[in-house]
Amino acid sequence: MKKKKAEKDDGKARFLAEVSKLWPVARGSLSYVRKPCIHPNCGACARGDKHPSWIFSIYHEGKQRCLYVPKELVPVLRKAIANGRRLEQLLAECGAGLVYEHRARRKGKGSSRKKEE
Description:
With 117 residues, the chain is an alpha+beta fold. Helices cover 51% and strands 21% of the residues. The chain has helices at 2-20, 43-47, 74-109, and strands at 29-35, 51-60, 63-69.
C-alpha cells in the first residue's frame, strides 16, 4: 500500500516540477497581419502597403477575441503559447496515466468478469 502511495506522490511531484517550468503560459494563436489605418491621407495605405502588426486570437466565453500585441511582447507570447501547448500535452498524459493505473490495479485484484471453469 505504501509503495502505491509513493508512486502516486512521485507522479504528482514530477508533474508539478514539470509544470513549474512552464511560465509564462497562454492558449491562443499569434498572427502577423497587415491592416489599413484610419487616417485618410496615409501614404502607406494609399500605396497598398498597409501597416504591419501582431494579433493574439483567443476564445473567451464562446466568442473569438483578437488583441493587438506590441512588437516587444511577441517573443514572450510565443514562448507562452508553446508552454501552453506543452501543458495541454502533460494534462493529456496524466489522464491516460490515470486510466492505465486503474487498469493495472484491477488486473492485480483479479477481474470479476472472468468465468470460473
